[in-house]
Every structure is written in structure tokens, then in C-alpha cells.
Amino acid sequence: MKVLVINSGSSSIKYQLLDMDTDTVLVNGLVERIGDEKGDLTNKAFPGTDKQVVTKMVQPIPDHNTGMRLAIELIAHPEKGVISDMSEIGAVGHRVVHGGEDFHQPTIITDEVIAAIEANVPLAPLHNPANLDGIRVAMELFPGVPQVAVFDTAFHQTIPAHAYMYALPYELYEKDRVRRYGFHGTSHKFVAGECARILDKNLGDLNCITVHLGNGCSMTAVENGKSVDTSLGMTPLEGLVMGTRSGDVDPAIHTFLSRNKGMDIEAIDTMLNKESGLKGLCGMNDMRDIHDAIEKGNELAKLALDVQTYRNRKYIGAYMAVLGRVDAIVFTAGIGENDDIVRRESVKGLECFGVKIDAEVNAQRAKEPLKISTDDSSVAVWVIPTNEELAIARETKNILQ
Ligand code: AMP
To answer: Looking at domain 2-151, does it have CATH number 2.30.22.10?
Structure first.
């Protein structure tokens, strides 16, 4: 079975075609700058082992429909593509950011599901409308092919009320569903599953802390295979220090900024989401640039690294207290998979809780899962690459079977 995975953003579409009989990627593509004067499309097709056909296009791509049509033409192109007919695509899996309290698992898309995703737009005003664009286009282009929504929030629907409630007037929850939802759920679930497989445990018996550090960052406490707490909140702003997002701040800072700096709520929102985090502290949001700057003696870059890794450590400690027994800590995503310094600093001082990493192994780079803890560490520490597209394709296949 071949599954097309679509991650539709406001001005971009990421897509992958996967062969689910072999778990291999057949096509990996990105349409960018939809709606701009000039759009970009990059399509990488893998028609056979060690063979790659890259096609780049620069042309106006006025809307998602045009972008997806161009991608599909390339996927089925006689020379540049990998399939001879669109009917080979057995299902389409969509990443949907916010399923609110309506979705606890991946769901076959119907009119009711679309209406429910729409009803959750107030909780994710930037993401859900873009995800819906992708769904509508795919439904038009692949009539009769099952479409499945895989929600970023679904894995976290097992979080108990004492962890998802904010201590605000209760009616805000009752009437407006103000609560923690959590995100990156597909990634946390995937690496927790991989961790159980590697440790030869049933997922239902595994307690672990999954640490997703990419441009967006979040941490999840997984108890007996289920999410019981996570650092992102009602929106993807709370918790860890991210590339451009602040993570936790005193909520009274909003009031301070409004009263003393005359900032309106839109300006504050933009600042917290786009001008804060690593970028806010040192002007750079890519960890590779931050390390280069630290080597040249940039003190603010060092501060940004310290603020991020200290916050990671604080959350790991908190989730150890939440879980009691921790079998493993799992680092994943762009920073988590590649940055040994961030990993080292994030578990520094946790030896007294049984977390010991091997500096030499930690410094290694691997595309495969890597155990970086010492043999006498009572908590195993692993680097496990995430693969959200494969996870979405697997969920899509599973729900249809
Ligand atoms: P993601 O959102 O998972 O794609 O992660 C993207 C982020 O990972 C980038 O913004 C970088 O900060 C970070 N990153 C990617 N590669 C490396 C690397 N080799 N070393 C350190 N950080 C990296």
C-alpha cells in the first residue's frame, strides 16, 4: 500500500509518498511560498535503491490546489516520478495540528470531521485553516481515496485533568475549552514506541521522558505508554525555550508590557511567538549558528544555550517526579538528534537521580538510535530519530486496516 502524507501550512505543503509494505520513502517534496510572486517546488523521487531524481521548479503557485497538482504531476511523471498511475495511492494521511478534545486518535475524514477541525480553529488559528486547505485539495484531487487526519494533540488526550487544567476560573474550561492540549504528539508517540521496541518492552509497560528539541521544543512524560503530561499548552507556546518562541514566562509580563510599553495584544503575541526564545536572547534561532557564535566568544549566544538547557533540565527533573520510575529519557528532532552539547547540558547534575551519560558516545553522530547513557546509569538515555511522516503513514494504514 502506498500512502501520501501531506503537511499543509499556510504558505507551504510538505509531502511524502511512502511504500508501507517496505516502510520506504518514494517521494519527498516541498512546495513553498504559495501565494507569493514566485513559488518554489522541490520534488525528490527515489525510484530505486541509490537512485534519486531531484526536480526543482520556480514559478507562481497561487494556491494550495496549484501546488498540490504540480506535485502530483511530478509524482506520476514518466521520467521524474515513481508511479505510473495515481490509482496506486491507496490513502492520504494529513497532519492536523489541533484536534481539541474531539480527537483521541487518527480519524478517517468525513464532513463531520472537517466540521470538528473547523470548530477547533480558534485554538489554532494559524494551523488548522492551512491543514484544512490541504485536506480539501486532496479530497478534490483524489476522489474516493480514503483520507485520514492525524492530530498533533491526540496522543496527549490521556493527560489527566490535574495536569491539563490551568488554575483559572473553571468556566473558561467549560465554555471555551481553555486547557493544556500539548503538541508534537505524533513525534512523542513515535519515539516512545521506538524506545519500547529497542528496550524489548511492551509500550504499555514503558515509563519514559521524550524530549523533542527542534525549532519547536516540547517534552512529554509517558507513563505505561501514555502521555500523562507535556510541556506545550493550549497553544504551542508554553514550556521549553524554542527557536523563536519564549516557552514559560510569567503571565503578568503581558500586563507589564501593555501598561508600561504600550504594546497591544497582537504585538505581544508576535513578540512571544516570533521574536523570543533563542532568537530573542541572542538574535539567532539555529543552534548551529549559536555554537559557532559561542566559539567566537559571543556571550549572549552562550546565555541562550544556558537558558534553553537549564529549562530542559528543570522539566526533566519535574517529569521524573511525575513518573517516579523512569526507564528512559529519549532525545529527538533537529537539536535532540544532532547536538551533543545540548544533550549533555540538559542532563547535567542529574547523576544523583541515576542519569549518567557517556561523554564519548554522546559525541557520536548516528542516523540510527544510539544509547548515550553509561551501563551503570539506572535511567537509559537514548537518541532516537523521529519520523513524523512515517508515523502519520503508519497511523493512516493502521486505521484503514
Ligand atoms: P526540526 O524542527 O526538528 O527540523 O529542527 C530544526 C533545528 O534543529 C534547527 O533550527 C537547528 O537549530 C537544529 N539543528 C539541525 N541540525 C543541527 C545540528 N547538526 N547541530 C545542532 N543543531 C541542529
So the answer is: no
Ligand 1 centroid vs 338 CA: distance in angstroms?
A: 7
| Distance, CA of 375 to CA of 357 (rounded, Å) | 9
Q: Give 36's contacts (C-beta < 8 A, 6+ positions apart).
A: 11, 60, 61
Q: What would the grid cell of residue 320 be?
A: 521524573
Asked if 2-151 and 200-388 have one fold, the answer is: yes
Ligand 1 centroid, distance to 331 Cα (angstroms): 13
305 Cβ below 6 A of ligand 1: no
Positions annotated as catalytic residues are 152
Among 183, 308, 338, residue to substitute to test ligand 1 (most atoms within 8 Å of Cβ): 338
Domain parsing of the chain, residue ranges = 2-151, 200-388
Label residue 116 by pLDDT band (50, 70, 90). very high
Q: Which helix (H) or strand (E) holds 229?
A: strand 226-230
Q: Which fold has domain 200-388?
A: Nucleotidyltransferase; domain 5 (3.30.420)
pLDDT digits (tens, 9 = 90+) for 141-186: 999 999 999 999 999 999 999 999 999 999 999 999 999 999 999 9
